[in-house]
Amino acid sequence: MPQQRPHSAPLGSATVAAPVFSSHFRGRPPRGRGRPPSKYAAASLFSGCGGLDYGAEQTGDVEVVWAVDSDEWAVRTYAENLGRHVWHADVTETEFPDVPCDILLAGPPCQDFSTLWNLDGARTERGNLFREVARFLDQRQPEAFVIENVPPLLTANRGEAWILVRHALRAPSQFLYSGLGPRYEISAEVVDFADLGVPQHRRRLVITGIRKDLGVLPGPIPRPFAGHHRTVGDALDREPIPPGAANHETGLDSDRVVERLKLIPAGSNYRFIPDGHPLAVRGLISHVYRRLDPDAPAYTIIANGGGGTHGYHHREPRRLSNREKARLQSFPDDFEFAGGQKGAYADVRRQIGNAVAPAGARIVVQALVDTLRAARVGGTAGHAIREAKRRVSGIQPDVGQETCALHRVSQ
Ligand SMILES: C[S@@+](CC[C@H](N)C(=O)[O-])C[C@H]1O[C@@H](n2cnc3c(N)ncnc32)[C@H](O)[C@@H]1O
After folding, report:
1. 107: Cβ below 6 Å to ligand 1?
2. How many separate domains does the chain show?
3. In CATH, what number is assigned to the domain containing residue 52?
4. Buried b / exposed e across 30-43, counting CB within 10 Å, b at 16+?
5. N vs C: which end of the chain shows fewer Cβ within 10 Å?
6. Residue 153 is assigned to a structural domain of this protein
């Protein structure tokens, strides 16, 4: 039987109240020799399946104590792979729990800033979800944050969106209600995650911030793989995926699509088929029926879209399996994704395409942690992290009960 979260109402119907932690302990350890080992406690808004959080935890210096997302399947995936400290809720209706938080991780939905959609950015409800990041910074005042988005955020609404978001991140209390509150030094960089060791070209805007009173600036993001990228061949061919691997369903394309793909060599797209050919298609973007190039990083793995946008294998005439997409996003093979009985391929595809590639997230977060440690900004004692996670997990709704089933589709 699914358990009900005592402090919550069903998703989207009412305010989700935060628990009150009477024994909350900030846990800042003493500085200098002999201090107890500590990690940076993180909270995660719009956590998705946990790509950013998984990468952050791979540093060994960060532990996520609480996360929230409104996508049921992403939350199930998160719970199975990272832990049950994730809540399935609409963040706009959620009171933030009183947990220790040194670093906020946030991946607000980026569709409205993406060139694949429109440039309505800040005006739309989804664009305004950035307000939730400001609300967290205002209330919980973490030492630092990492936010991922798409580069068009910088130019949406003729630059107005970025002016708003920058203000919200630098001075969240002033942005929200003209109040006094924490201020942040921020750094915004467009990074191709291929330069961070991800076998995929994926240009993303990474915004890091450090609370101004700490007197330290966020540093530049290192690019250790610039000039020697990992390729599709490295990711998919060196260690082939075993046929029965999780999320590795194939055979999802119609015969017509398979025949079309047979005409397109590796690295090419729909344009290779001459106009007038019975299998010719029209496309607006170069992604359409584009097959991978084994000697280069993949092109960007996207979360949804039909019409030849699934991503196509370089050797076999078929769309990529979700496991292959997960590899191109640098998820390990034992990171399994949950999806519904119907439409599981799409449920899983969405989570993978939305995720921050963990290998890149790890480098971004490590750079921030190194800056904090060099400035002797403490962290949170292990027992405080464990206690917070336990208490948050104790009140989350039940997730992960249904099994993930995939079915074959054709189109
Ligand atoms: C870009 S994805 C985040 C990806 C995540 N950072 C990762 O690395 O896997 C944006 C997420 O925001 C979630 N989301 C959108 N609106 C939301 C809301 N109102 N409350 C909570 N989550 C929301 C979506 O379900 C989606 O998982």
Report:
1. yes
2. 1
3. 3.40.50.150
4. eeeeeeeebbbbbb
5. N
6. yes
Q: Which of 393, 332, 325 has its CA nearest to residue 362?
A: 332
Tokens, residue 21: 């932690």
**Is ligand 1 within 6 A of the CB of residue 58?**
no
In a domain, 255, yes or no: no
Reported as a pLDDT band with limits 50, 70 and 90, residue 271 is confident
CA gap 69, 49 in Å, rounded = 9
Q: Is the CB of 396 under 6 A from ligand 1?
A: no
Is residue 313 included in any domain, yes or no? no
The residue count of the chain comes to 411
Cβ distance 377 to 216 under 8 Å?
A: yes
Mutate to test the pocket of ligand 1, among 70, 325, 350 (most ligand atoms within 8 A of CB): 70
pLDDT in tens, 214-232: 999 999 999 999 999 999 9
Residue 145: strand pairing partners: 104, 209
- CB of residue 321 inside a 6 A radius of ligand 1: no
Overall average pLDDT of the 29-55 stretch: 80
Spatial distance between the Cα atoms of 102 and 91, rounded to a whole number of angstroms? 19
Structure tokens at 12: 């989207």
Q: Are 290 and 268 in contact (CB under 8 A)?
A: yes
Q: Is residue 83 in some structural domain?
A: yes
Pocket test for ligand 1, best of 44, 46, 132 (most atoms within 8 A of CB): 46
Helix, strand, coil % (nearest 5) of the chain?
35, 15, 55
| Residues of the domain holding 116 | 38-227+355-401
Residue 336, CB-side half-sphere exposure with 13 Å CA sphere: 14
Whether 110 is a known active-site residue: answer yes
Burial of residue 352 (number of CB atoms within 10 Å: 0-12, 13-18, 19+): buried
User: How far is the CA of 394 from the CAs of 15, 86, 168, 180, 249, in angstroms?
Assistant: 19, 11, 32, 34, 34
